[in-house]
Write a structure and sequence with these properties.
The protein is mostly helical and 83 residues long. 65% of the residues lie in helices and 0% in strands. The chain is flat, with a radius of gyration of 27 Å.
Length: 83
């Protein structure tokens, strides 16, 4: 049993430490410059079209959810009469 655990540890150690690592460039200064420029946009929309799409989708789901809640509350408050 211990031998299997030791073998698993060796395999895991080899796969993580022996793999070649890609060097990534630091994009933080460009992002800071983009988010700090004064272009009249709110900070949650400065990321571009993906942020705008995410914002609009979130707002649409919020409005639809609130409408559905109101509909269900009205339906529960005024139940249909059974004949």
């Amino acid at each position: 049993m211990n031998r299997h655990i030791f073998a698993l540890q060796q395999v895991a150690r080899r796969s993580f430490s022996g793999s070649a690592r890609r060097q990534m460039e630091n994009n933080v200064p460009q992002k800071q410059k983009m988010f700090q420029e004064d272009n009249g946009l709110p900070v949650h929309l400065k990321g571009g079209t993906a942020d705008a799409l995410l914002y609009r989708t979130t707002m649409a789901l919020t409005v639809l959810g609130a409408g559905y809640v109101v509909y269900e509350l009205v339906k529960a408050a005024f139940p249909q009469k059974k004949d």
